[in-house]
Amino acid sequence: MIYGYARVSTIGQEQNGNSLKDQEKKLREAGAQIIYSDAFTGKTMQRPEFTKLLEVLQSGDTLICAKLDRFSRTAAEGVQIIQELLSNGVTVDILNMGRIDDSPMGKLMVTMLLAFAEFERSQIVERTQTGRKIAMANGEKMGRPQKYNPDRIKHAMSMLDSGMSYARVSAITGISKSTLIRSKRVCG
């Protein structure tokens, strides 16, 4: 059986031919009969569909992945999984680099390319953290914008203070009970 694996870090990832749709198309063109897909970070091998795929692979099967960094972003785990697959008789084919073999050169290539993928991920994390620090230093608010303006929350808090129940205030204001509870905790 020929299996394919596709992964994006986020559902909206559409760049550089990395979307799930693009990857799945390439995998089908390469002969994948069944494709497993995850929208999950590559920093961990604990991904729901990837785990299912590893459970069904048997000796004689082929695993196709569009790019090595879609397979794994950590060198140690990626090398370990690939070695286990090869030892169990599973052929691993990475479309942008070719079929991986169990030779010393094959192992070296996988290790080096996974190390570069891990390095790239570390650089992305570092740039993101630097950008956040700069934005916060410039007074930009981080995170999701507040759904309710402060005046609306203040009005809801005054209704609670006058003895109305959370359920009643929620029904009147349209603010969820959990948001009211959180706001009450913050406002005191």
Task: Characterise the protein shown here.
α4 (75-87) packs antiparallel against α5 (104-137) and α6 runs antiparallel to α7 (166-173). This protein has helices at residues 20-29, 48-56, 68-71, 75-87, 104-137, 150-161, 166-173, 177-187, and strands at 2-8, 34-39, 62-65, 91-94, 98-100. It is an alpha/beta fold. 54% of the residues lie in helices and 13% in strands. It has a five-stranded mixed sheet, with helices on both faces. The longest helix is centred in the middle third of the chain and has 34 residues, at 104-137. The model has no long low-confidence stretch (mean pLDDT 85). The protein is built from eight helices and five strands.
Most strands sheet? 5 strands, mixed
> How many E-type strands?
5
Number of helices: 8
* Overall body shape: elongated
Distance between the termini: 62 Å
**What ranges have pLDDT less than 50 throughout 5 or more consecutive residues?**
none
Structural class: alpha/beta
Strand percentage, roughly?
5-15%
Average pLDDT value?
85
Radius of gyration: 24 Å
SSE order: EHEHEHHEEHHHH
Side-by-side strand order of the widest sheet: 2-1-3-4-5
Residues in helix, %: 40-55%
